[in-house]
């Protein structure tokens, strides 16, 4: 009896270890340790693949075979063939590379968890991009720029001697969705990251990530030769500067032989860069490219530049970079944000894509929800990224980068559903042709529902629908029909379209973007205005330039539209604004209902966490709607249509709302509750 009791007690102790707190992400399969896995090679990567299968695979014996033949070579080092024979009694994963076996193993587990039938499988997979990389905006003091999931994972003070378990968990999660690179520090980089002391710490991380096929990259500060090396200049054509970077590259590669390369934010938002010395972005990038070239390293050079000039901010990256086409070394990739301004809930694509045919380009998506409600709002971003691919063929790009939403929070991403964006980013970087729905289904089956339980299917279906509508809902209640950057001063969470800060840079104020006046609202970027439309290929230029043909969703991005202008929807601009804001609010209310229905299928811990964030989101949606409609109404002088929910706030009260957070902080739940 005593033995039995102590056994039960031990079981109780074990339960919290597998509590549904989100810490296991989409990798919730349980060990039964029965899987029969054989490999024809041993190495840290192959061992990681086998260990993963032993952890979770419940089916027939699996043979992992590293083999270089015509077929596997065609699939590449990261590709794999996954096939079953003997009516599913034997499973084989073959690849020309160790990483291919790792990805094959995770693929098989994904099939199991999503309820696929593996009796007759014959799958060939290889990634669309060789480089599928996360960008962490993590600072050395462990704060995270635009991070809403706690602190930075990297415990710099404890590294390299103390290694958190989370490092390997992080790498494993990335490997499971095919991510193979990580830039571990902020693009607003401290030069200290390149000091000998820090490079030892970086090496420790690289050593943990390597068995999961993940290479480390660093963001660098262009003025490092001055700040760290004590040189009088960082001019990229200066001999000493060139020598400094060459030596630095040698030092890094001695420690980390598979180091990936550098990510550079230069001459942007106050960061140093080659232009400080009268040199071009290409000259700066090429100097660094030459330094890492002997080691097969690459330079990702960001095109996110805009200065407080007269030129429309949306035009500036194009104006500065397009003329440099063809001037970059072949190990430089120009990294461009998906929209021409800055990760707004909806932007047209950046016309710089496709405008530099002789230059390698990659897209930078933002996984962290800087402009989409932080980790408080449910916004599934795959549809937004797919929208980008409607305009930019994925084959025209060299790589895909995503600004990470990962931190020390138990569930990694703050919001349980924000995990789906990390997941979707990886899956799309592997295969941009996957549909948003398919990715959501995969993620839900692994994260919340049981694909083999018939009762779960209708609930999972509804939640998938909720995810699919969620990004559009955010656009609707924040900034519909092409509005953008209506955010509060000091943070990018709530609305402040009225914001006026004397002496502030005009392009950091909402009025620069919405230009509301008695006549109308929106930024005239047609040929009568800033002529940003001219940066687009002809067919789109014509479409966007004419207010009658410009798609409704971009109307106020490209036009200063009269309040009475009748849109393609048949409504006036004012009525359409009212309807969209209201639709956004109603949708979030509906998300609350959909979520409520899942209660019986989902563990209480995660159910309640999501429920409480949805109620914050619903209140925020009303906050946004009331703030924007009441403010714009002062200009339109028109009534809110009667079929639309009445405002519940007064504009003066809303103008007094100030969240007590700094520019890079996340409000607490309490702050949001006290706000009203
Ligand atoms: C903006 C962020 C800022 C980043 C910058 C960038 O507000 O914190 O440093 O982009 O991407 O979206 O460099």
Main sheet attributes: strand count, strand direction, barrel closure: 8 strands, parallel, barrel
Beta-strand share of residues: 5-15%
Round the Cα radius of gyration to an integer and report it. 26 Å
Percent helix? 25-40%
Number of domains: 3
Main β-sheet, spatial strand arrangement? 6-7-8-9-10-11-12-13
The CATH homologous superfamily name of the largest domain equals Glycosidases
Overall strand count: 15
N-to-C CA distance:
56 Å
Give the mean pLDDT: 95
The CATH topology assignment of the largest domain is TIM Barrel
Level-2 CATH architecture of the largest domain: Alpha-Beta Barrel
- Extract low-pLDDT stretches: 7-17
Subunit organisation of the chains: single chain
Ligands, deduplicated: beta-D-glucopyranuronic acid
**How many H/I helical runs?**
21
**Shape from CA axes?**
globular
Structural class, judged by helices and strands? alpha/beta
> What is the CATH level 1 assignment of the largest domain?
Alpha Beta
Give a structural overview.
The chain is of the alpha/beta class. The chain folds into three domains: 104 residues, 2-Layer Sandwich (Chitobiase, domain 2), CATH 3.30.379; 308 residues, TIM Barrel (Alpha-Beta Barrel); 164 residues, Alpha-Beta Complex (Alpha-d-glucuronidase, C-terminal Domain). The protein contains 21 helices and 15 strands. The protein has an eight-stranded parallel β-barrel. Strands 1-2-4-3-5 form a five-stranded mixed beta sheet. Strand 7, helix 6 and strand 8 form a beta-alpha-beta unit. Helix 8 crosses helix 9, helix 14 runs antiparallel to helix 18 and helix 18 packs antiparallel against helix 19. The longest helix has 33 residues. The radius of gyration is 26 Å and the shape is globular. It binds beta-D-glucopyranuronic acid. The site of beta-D-glucopyranuronic acid has 10 residues, from loops.
